[in-house]
Amino acid sequence: MHIEPPGPAARTLRDFAAHYLMIVLGILTALGLEQAIEYSRDREGAREAQAQIEAELRTNLQDIGDAMRENESHLQTLRPVAAALAADLRTGMPLESLRHKISDEYRKRLVIGVMFPPFNHDAWDVAVASQSASHIPVRRLQAYTAAYTAERDTLEAMKLTVSAIYGPRMPDVLAATDLGIVDPHEFYFVIQQLIVAGAAAQSALGQTKAEVMKDLTTIGAAPPAGDHEAPAGSASGAP
Predict the structure, then answer these.
(1) How far apart are CA 127 and CA 110, in angstroms?
(2) How far apart are CA 20 and CA 128, in angstroms?
(3) Of these four, 66, 148, 175, 239, which has the most CB atoms within 10 Å of its CB?
(4) Are 180 and 106 in contact (CB under 8 A)?
């Protein structure tokens, strides 16, 4: 242990002032170094948060593309079924024959489900919780906020839409189909519900995709054209 021997006592006001100034300068220097180190850590944390957030938003773009392709595939299957059933109804096909056709053919071609991405936000949540977000430049922070807000609002809207469409009516109609007692008009309405839900999902996802792309582009972080179309991750479905 090193002990610094006491220096000579200040005998004049000038000596006291010089000694006092050295102490103050030492304290200020130590505080300045501490602030510089803290600032460097904050900037590094902000840079890491930015990289993780932008990677997460790119992944979300890829998931949106996956969900939209899946939904479009469902719509391309459902629309011909609706058109064929509508034609059968217009021609006045006998009820029993139509019920058999629905159970044996149309029911097998019925695709039930609207796909939507999980819209991950872990990187954003970590940045906010660790306060790294407070050190991200305002322009980037605004872009991130707009992107995540668009994703959250779209997910909530799609959940409400799906829950409204897939009410008790649909399982009742499907059960009646399996029993061979379905009302053909009711079955047609179910198909139309699925088509409306899929089309609404496509519209919402398309708008969200455009918003996220715009937000990333404004800060020069958008992926190269076509990258966000590549399959990556799985989309979550609403049964």
Answers:
(1) 43
(2) 43
(3) 148
(4) no
